[in-house]
Amino acid sequence: MDISGAAFDRLAPPLQRWLWEQGWTGLREAQAAALPLLLDDERDVVIAAATASGKTEAAFLPLLTRLWQGGGQGMVLYVAPMKALINDQFERLGLICERLELPVTPWHGDVGESPRKRFFADPRGVVLITPESLESLLFRRGAELGRIFASLEAVVVDELHAFIGSERGRQLQSLLHRLDAAIGRRVRRVGLSATLGDMRLAAEFLRPGAGAAVAVIVSSAEKKRLDLAFKAVRVPPGTEITVIAAHQTIAVELFARLRDANYLIFPNTTGLVEQYADGLRLLSEAARVPVSFFPHHGRLGKSERETTESELKRGDRPISAICTTTLEMGIDIGAIRGVVQIGAPDTVSSLCQRIGRAGRRAGEAARLWQYCVTEEPHANMGCAAGLHADFIQALAIIRLYLAKWYEPPRSGALHTSTLVQQILALIGERHGISAADAYRTLCLSGPFSNISESDFIELLRALAAQGLIMQDATRLLLHGPLGEKRVNHFTFFAAFPDTQEYRLLHTGKELGTLPLKISHQVGSVLIFAGRRWRMAEIDHDKRRVELIPATVGDRPRTRGEGSPVHDRVRAEMRAVLAGEDEPEWLDDKAREVLRSARRHFRDLGLGACTQIADGNSVNLFLWRGDAVQDGLVAMLRSRGLAAENHGICVEIGRTNVQRLTAGLQEIAAAPCPAPDQVLNRQAIGNPEKWDWVLPDRLFHASFASSRLDLAGAHTWCSKGVKNAK
Fold first, then answer.
1. Exposed e or buried b for every residue in 373-390, given b needs 16+ CB within 10 A?
2. Does residue 434 contact residue 475 with C-beta atoms inside 8 Å?
3. What tens digit of pLDDT does each residue of 648-684 get?
4. Rounded distance between C-alpha atoms, residue 697 and residue 21, angstroms
């Protein structure tokens, strides 16, 4: 589209001048499609496109034009999942809004009080906020919300896909609904998202109960050209030492290859990020060249992350960031030539986000180098190990990415833990509320519509029994003694749990945070922020650790990383193993691994059977996603079988094919069990923040709704059991 076209002419004149000065030659596809919707219509809108395709401008150019047309008295609320995104957008939008004489207010835990005071004195312009800070604002300023947000025109939710299906996402839905209720009108919502497998589910997430009315814009722009290479690193069987050596081999190759431009390196864990950052720093020092490899992950302190981001943006020398999902988001990090993926990604959507960061310059291809570490075949290799699951999963995910398939958002979770938080938050916002009004606000018209009235009453009784809530003489719900204590602690506003992490400091500077293990003590060594440290002092009361430089270190090991694998990915893994094609982008060793895995697949007869005896165990090959496989594990364990989900298969220990077959037949013959019939709460623990409050039945139902597919597992038992071997 030409910059002088009719759509461009509809923008506010100061915006037109700014875009012309920035060298724009036209509007991109998503921007042109969004302009009339956001200028002429009042519908909610989801804008889905690849990273760096101009989604932010697609939303803000028309919305800022509306604010300008209204004399600059309106307001747009921008909600982002990360502080770094807010900081980035503050710089970008600040330059634009300066031309319109509109204030831009960043709002998160690292921002001081002065910007907030200015906003309260003159509530207009653009407010950039995290869900946690929005929760705090509603809680602390409940009586003033009608005045504060009187001129609110729209709420823009960035990285919408990052919220869907999570506790934090349900909190955000509740916050937006409570905001509408507080100001007495429906405020338009605009979601910015990566492309998902079912965009209508994203629309339903944005406006629960009315997703069909949400306008969805999906950019059909052609994917950028991709230069792809898949490399296997084979290691002899043995201990973790051989795997560490394999990663060192990869680090040496990356040190030699990544010298021409900026790259992002994605290992699959925080520990591996630190291992690679340490190894590449040592290689740089040994070669007497400046260090050009920097770590970036969520546990690093703000200054450490910002150092990596600024090094990437400087552009005066090639820089590579070793990172986790923190750099999947749309933070401005300058031009990225390519992406290195080490180990299989969990999802196609994640790989898509990562590749989308690269090859932004016109005519430039994005690069993807996929590495997988695999064992050499040996006599004692188990039947599952011989299938090289990580390698096959990486190959399957790349094939699905090239076929333009992405995981649909998961829906249907109860999120009862977050409902506890929202009850307490609503009581604070309203300074007391009746049980009926709370149910009406949060459930009947709110995002917790799958919670029945009887379940809600049971939940309120559990909260009262714990001292979190109480009723006064007029039957208003108020905070109880424990509730007062909890809501007045800064950790209350987050839907996710406080991880009890320790602050890591060196000479007064905070490097980041980590959970400490029992084995950690004064003198323990650690790799963090890409450097080696020794713990000089540990203060358990203040949860802080003083670090001093060391010559040796150990990579941190953290839990909770990774996403569940979808049914379609496991089906594609089976298709890879059953097939014969060899993609041209596999290197010679990768071809050897693929041929070896396929021979093993055929030798086991997995094209025709599902159960394989392996010593004293039986491996059950469902080729289904983690929700189904974890559901089957729960059913088998409830019948006394020692089942574990290993991804490529479900392993049942201390059994034989006959006993397992009988157990599967018993499951198939009985009705699909309720969650509380197959789950062991003590074994599960409390994965969500407020799970400890929930009665057993509500806990089991909530856990199963978000993590298990019991119906799918039961159906598989009825239809999926084939021959055994």
1. bbbebeeeeebbbbbbbb
2. yes
3. 999 999 999 999 999 999 999 999 999 999 999 999 9
4. 61
Q: What does the H/E/C string look like for 282-341?
A: HHHHHHCCCCCEEEECCCECHHHHHHHHHHHHHCCCCCEEEECHHHCCCCCCCCCCEEEE
Give the helix/strand (H/E) hosting 688.
Answer: none
DSSP-derived 3-state class of residue 642? strand
| pLDDT at residue 2 greater than cutoff 60 | no
State the Cα–Cα distance between residues 33 and 39, nearest whole angstrom.
11
Query: How confident is the model at residue 559, as a pLDDT?
Result: 66
Confidence of residue 330 (pLDDT cuts 50, 70, 90): confident
* Residue 239 reports pLDDT greater than 80: no
How many angstroms separate the CA atoms of 120 and 144, rounded? 10
DSSP code of residue 515: P
Instruction: Tell me the backbone φ, ψ of residue 194, rounded to 5 degrees.
Output: -70, 160
Angle 372-267-648 from CA coordinates, rounded to 5°: 50
**What is the C-alpha separation between 415 and 709, in angstroms, rounded?**
15
Tell me, what's the pLDDT at 539? 93
Long-range contact pairs involving 477-482 (C-beta distance under 8 Å, separation at least 24): 477/423, 477/427, 477/432, 477/433, 477/434, 477/435, 477/438, 478/427, 478/432, 479/424, 479/427, 479/428
- CA 323 to each of CA 137, 230, 298: distance values in angstroms, whole numbers, following the listed order: 32, 19, 9
Contact 193, 46 (CB under 8 A): yes
Integer Cα distance of 42 and 189 in angstroms: 9
Q: Give the integer Cα–Cα distance in Å for 458 and 436.
A: 13
**Which residues share a beta bridge with 155?**
77, 189
| Amino acid identity, position 527 | I
Residue given tokens 């990580």 in the structure block: 390
Q: Which of 433, 440, 499 is nearest to 687 (CA)?
A: 499
Pairwise CA distance, residues 13 & 21, whole Å:
12
d(CA 266, CA 722): 38
| Strand pairing class (531-539; 525-528) | antiparallel
What stretches of 132-219 adopt beta strand conformation (E)?
152-157, 188-193, 215-218
Angle between helices 389-402 and 567-578 (to 10 degrees): 100
* CA distance linking residue 230 with residue 684, whole number of Å: 37
Provide mean pLDDT across the span 581-605: 97
- How far is residue 263's CA from residue 170's CA, in Å, rounded to a whole number? 34
